[in-house]
Write a structure and sequence with these properties.
This protein has 312 residues and is of the alpha/beta class. The protein has eleven helices and nine strands.
């Protein structure tokens, strides 16, 4: 990892492409964000900045990532201090209530409009408090996803569902970087449209609530109800971690929770139009990443590095 970082630093500060000379004197670039460091957790993990200097675009990518940036189990002493519900008391509803009470306005709740996220919205609404849930509009949502948002807003008055996605339009992205980035550089497309907006959204937050579940994939098997996400610098709260997809479906049916009708058309998870396909034989109680980024070696958008498949 040290070698990878040093190489990136030499390219950034010493490359003739950036400096316009053959010297290795440091230089600055007005497109380089103030305070940015190659040693910050986001860059260590996956950050792929584009630096525009003298009309030359330079792409940097650190392929490796640090294990310490994975969400970490809380030390017992800290868990006790936070008074996290434990044992049989750690139900999804109790964890949702605890998180809202503990972190207040410093809690960020997000949804990608998967069934899990819709169930969390229902649980939040039942607290009877005016709350906000954020989503990241990638500009590539299915029409059914936009329709679901409207149904959720009608079903849950008092819950503000707010877009925190990028302002960069697909046309602007194509003009600046190239057409169909989801094909040519899908990781970078996800970074622009999901990860960077999430970084901005979580800046200053103390906690982040997601719909992650252990049974979503093998790599999520160790997901804790409350973790330390050192990459985003927040406590990561996963109230549904112990539930199966069938548990989620049973709750949705019992409580009249709106869900995306594409689940009934063979889509176990739903992301962007260009990168999501139905999975033959899939039903509403199935969860699979097989329909995401079909045909390429990718199952992760980048939001949950220890748990491929960001079904928040």
């Amino acid at each position: 990892m040290y070698v990878a970082r040093k190489a990136a630093l030499r390219l950034l500060f010493s490359s003739p492409i950036l400096t316009g000379s053959t010297t290795s004197e440091p230089t600055t670039c007005r497109a380089f964000p103030a305070g940015f460091s190659l040693f910050t957790p986001p860059f260590r993990r996956f950050y792929r900045p584009t630096l525009a200097c003298n009309e030359v675009i330079v792409h940097l990518r650190v392929l490796e990532h640090d294990r310490e940036d994975q969400p970490q189990q809380l030390p017992t002493e800290l868990a006790e201090k936070l008074q996290i519900p434990q044992g049989d008391a750690a139900t999804p509803q109790s964890l949702v209530s605890w998180a809202v009470s503990r972190f207040g306005s410093r809690l960020v709740v997000t949804t990608g409009f998967g069934m899990e996220g819709c169930v969390l919205i229902d649980m939040l609404w039942r607290l009877g408090l005016p709350l906000t849930v954020h989503y990241l509009d990638t500009h590539f949502f299915f029409p059914e996803t936009h329709a679901l948002r409207l149904r959720l807003e009608a079903r849950y008055p008092g819950i503000a569902i707010v877009n925190a996605g990028t302002d960069l339009t697909p046309e602007e992205q194509a003009a600046a970087i190239g057409p169909e980035l989801w094909k040519t550089a899908p990781d970078r497309c996800c970074n622009i449209r999901k990860v960077e907006p999430m970084q901005r959204l979580l800046a200053g937050a103390q906690a982040w609530m997601t719909g992650l579940r252990r049974s979503q994939s093998d790599t999520r098997a160790d997901t804790a109800f409350v973790e330390q996400d050192t990459r985003f610098g927040v406590f990561k709260i996963n109230p549904l971690a112990g539930w199966s997809r069938e548990n989620v479906w049973d709750y949705a049916v019992a409580n009249g929770v709106p869900y995306n009708e594409l689940h009934e058309q063979g889509y176990p998870t739903i992301g962007c139009t260009h990168c999501t396909r139905p999975v033959p034989g899939s039903t509403v109680i199935d969860y699979s990443r097989a329909g995401r980024w079909a045909g390429i070696d990718k199952t992760e958008c980048g939001l949950h590095w220890n748990s491929p498949g960001a079904g928040i």
